[in-house]
Design a protein that fits this description.
The chain has seven helices and ten strands. With about 220 residues, the protein is an alpha/beta fold. Bound molecules: adenosine-5'-diphosphate (ADP) and magnesium ion.
Amino acid sequence: MLKLIHASKIYHDSGVQALRDVNLHVAAGDYVSITGASGSGKSTLMHILGLLDTLSAGQYLLGGADVSCLPPHTLARLRSEQIGFIFQGFRLLPGMTALENVALPLTLQGIPRTERLERAEQALARVGLSERTTHRPDQLSGGQQQRVAIARAVVTKPRVVLADEPTAGLDPEAAEDVLSLLDGLHHAGHTIVLITHDRAAALRAARRLYLESGVLSGG
Ligand code: ADP
Ligand code: MG
């Protein structure tokens, strides 16, 4: 599903080599965690896998197709169709309700309004927030906001879900809710990459990898 071959990333403005000759194969339906210290390259790896950034050297195959050198509009379309993102800090739009936030990725896909709202409601129901559709982010707890973000990540039915530190800053109970939802997405057939510096969270994944100074090991 996801394959990196001799992948390297250098940020030219800082001169930092954030990924060094990374080889990674994530099969369809896998649940993989990636841990590593702050600055080890975890977010860089997520940005590459999520088509938010491109490699300096090496290849990236997504679903068997080489996506290393595609133009931005093609990357944007693939990203919108195939990838769901969950971030630390949720990144919900503050002026919108939970329902509107979840429906937003469907707007970008040109789905008609009635279908958008129906699918957003279903996605919010899956994360246990049917009663909160009209609430804005500032009216929700951190854990609830992250559940809205999970609903937004899966409303497009992406094959791949990428989560970057999704439990950071949450209390243990809310973090457990988030990890349980990721378990559920895995069982529903999504391919999941969980990036975390929390070793206990990483243990939820079937396969565990480790990043140190841009070098990936363990898989
Ligand atoms: P992590 O998520 O594991 O904390 P990052 O992938 O964010 O690590 O960063 C890896 C390295 O790349 C760090 O040294 C960081 O300073 C550098 N870096 C990250 N993003 C950028 C950027 N946009 N421009 C320049 N350097 C960056
Ligand atoms: Mg990071």
